[in-house]
UniProtKB/TrEMBL annotation:
Membrane topology: Multi-pass membrane protein
PANTHER family: TRANSPORTER
Chain ranges passing through the membrane: 12-31, 43-67, 88-114, 148-166, 178-198, 218-240, 261-280, 300-323, 344-363, 391-408, 429-455
Domain of life of the native organism: Bacteria
InterPro entries cross-referenced by the UniProt entry: Na/ntran_symport, SNS_sf, YocR/YhdH-like
Annotated organism of origin: Clostridium tagluense
Keyword Coiled coil: no
GO cellular component: membrane
NCBIfam families: Na_transp (NF037979)
One Pfam family matching this protein: SNF
Higher taxonomy: Bacteria, Bacillati, Bacillota, Clostridia, Eubacteriales
Protein's UniProt name: Transporter
Keywords assigned: Membrane, Transmembrane, Transmembrane helix, Transport
Family annotation (CDD domains): SLC6sbd_Tyt1-Like
Annotated localization: Membrane
Length: 457
């Protein structure tokens, strides 16, 4: 009880919102949502993604906030504090494994972004054409040494920030930088919309062709919503544990989900007009962002300086997402295994680097390990992504919803979400509860059974 009182909390609702958003906003918005939307059929995929955020993402985020604030503990300790049976700790364990799997490939992509900052500073993209842009990306990705070195630099930066304990300072800085990134994306949007043939890109992004929807599209969109909002891995439990007693957790979830989705959609509006205008394919895959964005900037005044700023801010957003998310395994090692902070950070990033090498060396079919397949036809890079986003995060989310729906007293849940009755939101809580107890888990189970081939959508 005394520990409960001592645990510090965020200073204001504003701080809560920005910190949570800092974990969510990252390469997911700028790199992954656009490239998957391109690869999985455009508007139809985007629609399913937005539905997954609303029907699954928001309810799960509220559950995680509840667990965190009610227990005031980290993701593993929280379940003990809530007097849950031992098995529930597995949610925290799944989260630790997911955080590792994601970091194996995320640190590689962050490395590409870091390298693009320097390439842009050197002026590599001045006078860029679609052919040279694609060639630049290919040389960035295949390596083998440069992408490995960049990945190493990324993990060193993350380690230094965590070990030096300047995470809070970093968060303060990002609070001011995030709006700048937002404005840069808006500038890209305006430029992209004036490109010849821009409307084709918009049509691709927003026109819903229902025939594109199938089981794999739904599973990918669902996995993406977890990845995007950093759900299913205990991160939001940890954030919830620092919330103030008067924070409206439902409103926070909705705001975070909306803002995050807005950033992703605006990134799509910057990218797809360029795809069509410059004669590229929306299904370019993981390189979509890197091939198109230099082209968009080449069409604006001060384009090269703004391009440097764009990749720099994207690198910062990726780094803050990594820092907040890598804390899950670090907290596990320090709090559950009694390790010192420095050892825990170095162990975590050390594992991330050693296995992350496999992701970096398999990012493209012409990479050194590009032809090695695990999990069916997937290489290491794709397998790490698939295992985390499409399997472990949804399983973690499902368990979280079941825990709240069936193992927590409804009254406790209502009291906490209404801030002991001070918020006038009983009907919203009731609707949300129906989602958490029935709709969200059923949706998750259906999509999941479909993905492993037990039922066919
Ligand atoms: N939310 C982050 C983004 O969209 C991705 C993310 C989720 C992540 N979990 C993570 C990144 C764990 C690193 C580690 O960019």
């Amino acid at each position: 009880m005394s520990e409960k009182k001592k645990r510090e909390t965020f200073s204001s609702g504003f701080a809560v919102f920005f910190a949570t958003l800092g974990s969510a906003v990252g390469l997911g918005n700028i790199w992954k949502v656009p490239y998957l939307t391109g690869a999985k059929g455009g508007g139809a995929f985007l629609l399913i993604y937005v539905l997954c955020v609303a029907l699954v993402g928001i309810p799960i985020m509220v559950c995680e906030f509840y667990i965190g604030r009610k227990s005031r503990k980290n993701a593993v300790g929280a379940f003990e504090e809530l007097k849950a049976a031992k098995g529930w700790k597995s949610i925290g364990f799944i989260g630790v494994v997911s955080a590792f799997l994601i970091m194996f490939f995320y640190s590689c992509v962050a490395g590409w972004v870091y390298s693009y900052v320097f390439k842009a500073i050197k002026g590599d993209f001045v006078g860029v054409t679609s052919a040279t842009s694609s060639a630049k990306f290919a040389s960035t990705l295949v390596g083998p040494m440069p992408p490995l070195i960049w990945q190493f630099i990324v993990l060193i930066v993350v380690s230094i920030i965590l070990i030096a304990g300047v995470k809070n300072g970093i968060e303060r800085i990002t609070k001011t930088l995030m709006p700048v990134l937002f404005i840069l994306i808006l500038i890209c949007d305006i430029t992209a919309l004036t490109l010849p043939g821009a409307s084709q890109g918009l049509k691709f992004l927003f026109h819903v062709d229902f025939s594109q929807i199938n089981g794999s599209v739904i599973l990918t969109a669902l996995g993406l919503s977890f990845f995007k909002l950093s759900l299913g891995m205990g991160i939001m439990i940890t954030y919830g544990s620092y919330f103030t007693q008067n924070n409206n957790m439902i409103a926070t979830s909705v705001r975070v989900a909306l803002s995050d989705s807005l950033v992703s959609i605006l990134a799509g509006i910057a990218i797809f007009p360029a795809v069509f205008s410059f004669g590229m394919k929306p299904s370019e895959g993981a390189g979509l962002l890197f091939k198109t964005i230099p082209l968009v900037f080449s069409k604006m005044p001060f384009g090269n300086i703004l391009l440097v700023a764009f990749f720099l801010l994207t690198a910062i957003a990726a780094t803050t997402a990594m820092i907040s998310n890598v804390q899950v395994p670090v907290a596990y090692f320090t709090e559950e295994k009694g390790m010192g902070k420095k050892t825990a950070v170095l162990l975590t990033t050390g594992i991330m680097m050693s296995i992350g090498i496999l992701a970096t060396l398999s990012a493209d079919s012409s990479s050194v390990l590009g032809n090695i397949h695990i999990l069916g036809q997937k290489g290491f890079f794709e397998s790490f992504d698939y295992l985390s986003s499409n399997i472990l995060l949804p399983v973690g989310g499902l368990l979280t919803a079941i825990f709240i729906g069936y193992f927590v007293k409804r009254e406790d849940f209502k009291l906490e979400l209404s801030n002991q009755g001070t918020l006038n939101n009983a009907s919203i809580i009731n609707v949300l509860y129906v989602f958490i107890k029935f709709i969200t888990p059923i949706l998750l189970i259906i999509v999941f059974l479909n993905s492993i081939g037990i039922i066919k959508l």
